[in-house]
Amino acid sequence: MIELLTPTEMQRVDRLAIADGSPGIALMERAGAQVAEAILRHFAGARDVLVLCGSGNNGGDGFIAARHLAEAGMHVRVMSAVAREALAGDAALAAQAWSAPLERLSTDHGRPDLIVDALLGAGLRRDVAGPLAAVIDAVNTSGSPVVAVDLPSGIDGATGAIRGCAIQARQTVTFVRCKPGHFLLPGRELCGERLLFDIGISDATVDEIGAGTFANRPTLWQAHWPAIAHDRHKYDRGHVGVVTGGATATGAARLAIRGAFRTGAGLVTALAPAEAAFVLAPALEGPMLRIADTADDLQKLVAERKISAVVIGPGTGVGEGTRKNVLGILATDAAVVLDADALTSFEGEASLLLAALRQRPRPTVLTPHAGEFHRLFRGLLPDAGSKLDLCRHAARQANAVVLFKGADSVVAAPDGRASIADNAPPWLATAGAGDVLTGIIAGLLAQGMPAFEAASAAVWIHGKAAADFGPGLIAEDLPDQLPSILRSFVRPWRDDDPLRVD
Ligand SMILES: NC(=O)C1=CN([C@@H]2O[C@H](COP(=O)(O)OP(=O)(O)OC[C@H]3O[C@@H](n4cnc5c(N)ncnc54)[C@H](OP(=O)(O)O)[C@@H]3O)[C@@H](O)[C@H]2O)[C@@H](O)CC1
Ligand SMILES: Nc1ncnc2c1ncn2[C@@H]1O[C@H](COP(=O)(O)OP(=O)(O)O)[C@@H](O)[C@H]1O
Ligand SMILES: [K+]
C-alpha cells in the first residue's frame, strides 16, 4: 500500500474497478461506512454531528456516513451545497438513502461535537472562493473537531497545496491509497491524523495504473538493502571518500564521515587539503586521511584507493575550487553525492554541472534544501509546480537522483519514480543534520545499493534516527542512533550456528 495516487490516477483506478464489476455506489457505500466506523471508534463520545456535503461524490460519501452515524444513535444534521434534485449519479443515490431533511449549506453551524467535511475531495478543480470559502472559515473557527472525507476540502490531492482556503482537520479518512497531497506540505499538516481504508479495490487493479510515486517506507527499498556475507572483507563493504573543507571548516565533512561509517561502509577516507591535515588527523580514528589539494589529486586518490562513493560539498566552500573538484570527481567511476557548497558553486552556471551529469554513467545523488534547489535550477524548471513535480523535472534534467530536503523530503529518479517522506520530526532541522545524511547515502551507495533506493532509505533512516532520539537532538547524535535502526534491515547472519542455545 505504498503507492501514492494522484486524484487523476485514483479516478482511473475507480473506473477500472467499476468496469471490473464493482458498481460506483457500492464503492461509495463502503467509503461512507468506513468514515462512520472511524468516527464511532475515535469520537465515540460525540452526540451532535454536523455533516457538510458538497455537490459531487465526496458529498455522496458524506450522505452515507450520516446515515450510519444516525443509525448508531448520534444526532446528525446534514447541510448540502445543492438541493437533492441538483445531485447526480452515485451522489444522488447516496442522498436518496438519507431520508431526514437537508439543510442549505451555511456558516451557521452552532457548536456540534464533530463536523464531517465532505465538501470537496478528489474533484477540486479551482481555488475555493465566495460562499464556500466562508463556510470553510466558519468550520475552522468553530472550535469543533473535524473529520475530513478523503482530503480536507481545499487541499489539492496531487500537490498538497491550499487552493484558496482549506479545512484544518483533526482526522482525514481516505480510501484505497493515500494521495501525494496527504504527504506534501501544507496538505499533510491540514490532514491531522491520516487513516487509510480498503473499499474493495484490489491491488491488481491499482497495479494496472503503474503509479510512480511512493510513500517512503522500508517496503520501498528494503529488498535492495546490501547483504553482508560471511566471507566479505572491508573492501567488499565499500569505501567512502569525503572531501573536506580547509583547516577551519572540517566539521561538516566529519559529520558525513561518521554517517557513512555507521551505515556500514567498510572504509572511510577524509580527502583533505594539506592545510587541514593537522586539524583532521587527531579527530579521526577509524577513518583514514589522504591529502588532495587539486581535482587531479582527488581523481588519482579515487582510482588508487578504490573509492566507491564520494561525498563533496559540506564545508568545501563556494567557488571555482569546489567547482573544479566536483567536475573532477564526476569524471571518476565512483558514485557521487553532491550537497551544499558543491551545488551552490554552480549557481548561475548550472549548465556546466548538468552537462557533466548528463554524460555520466555512474550513480549520482544531489541533495539540495529548498534554497540550494532554487539557486541551482533557477530558470531551468517550470515556474510553478509542486515540490514533487519540480523534483521530478530536476532529476530528469540532471540525469541524477535528486533529494529535495525538508519536512516532506522528496526523492526523484530520472526514470520518473519518486518517494515522499513523512517521518522527519521538526527537531531534525538542526545545523549539520544534512551533512550526516550525505554520509548515510554514500555509505549505502558504496555498498552497492541503487541510487534511488539508497537516497530514499537514507532519508527514512535519518528521520527515524531523529524521531528515536527525540527533542534536544544535535547532528552529532544522529550517527549513534543508526545501529539500532540498521539492525532490522541486516539479514540474520548466525542462523546456521550449530552451537546456538536459545
Ligand atoms: N469515484 C468513485 O468511485 C469513488 C469516489 N469517492 C469519493 O468521490 C470523491 C470524488 O468525487 P468527485 O470526482 O465527484 O469530486 P468532488 O471532490 O466531490 O468535487 C466535485 C464537485 O465539486 C465542485 N467543485 C470543484 N472545485 C470546486 C471549488 N473550488 N469550489 C466549489 N466547487 C468546486 C465541482 O463542481 P463543478 O466544477 O462541476 O462546478 C463538483 O460538483 C472522492 O474524493 C471520494 O470522496 C468514494 O466514494 C469512493 C468511490
Ligand atoms: N521542518 C523540518 N522538519 C523535519 N525535518 C526537516 C525540517 N526542515 C529540514 N529538515 C531536515 O533537516 C535536514 C537539514 O539539512 P540541511 O538543510 O542540509 O542542513 P545542514 O546543511 O545544516 O546540514 C534535512 O535532512 C532536512 O530534510
Ligand atoms: K473533504
From TrEMBL:
It comes from the Bacteria. Gene3D superfamilies: 3.40.1190.20, YjeF N-terminal domain (3.40.50.10260). It catalyses: (6R)-NADPHX = (6S)-NADPHX; (6R)-NADHX = (6S)-NADHX; (6S)-NADHX + ADP = AMP + phosphate + NADH + H(+); (6S)-NADPHX + ADP = AMP + phosphate + NADPH + H(+). GO terms for biological process: metabolite repair; nicotinamide nucleotide metabolic process. Residues 10-207 form the YjeF N-terminal domain. K(+) binds at residues 58, 117, 153. GO terms for molecular function: ADP-dependent NAD(P)H-hydrate dehydratase activity; ATP binding; metal ion binding; NAD(P)HX epimerase activity. Keywords: ATP-binding, Isomerase, Lyase, Metal-binding, Multifunctional enzyme, NAD, NADP, Nucleotide-binding, Potassium. Its EC number is 4.2.1.136, 5.1.99.6. The keyword Transport does not apply. In the C-terminal section; belongs to the NnrD/CARKD family. Homotetramer. Catalyzes the epimerization of the S- and R-forms of NAD(P)HX, a damaged form of NAD(P)H that is a result of enzymatic or heat-dependent hydration. This is a prerequisite for the S-specific NAD(P)H-hydrate dehydratase to allow the repair of both epimers of NAD(P)HX. Catalyzes the dehydration of the S-form of NAD(P)HX at the expense of ADP, which is converted to AMP. Together with NAD(P)HX epimerase, which catalyzes the epimerization of the S- and R-forms, the enzyme allows the repair of both epimers of NAD(P)HX, a damaged form of NAD(P)H that is a result of enzymatic or heat-dependent hydration. This is Bifunctional NAD(P)H-hydrate repair enzyme. It comes from Agaricicola taiwanensis. The lineage of its organism: Bacteria, Pseudomonadati, Pseudomonadota, Alphaproteobacteria, Rhodobacterales.
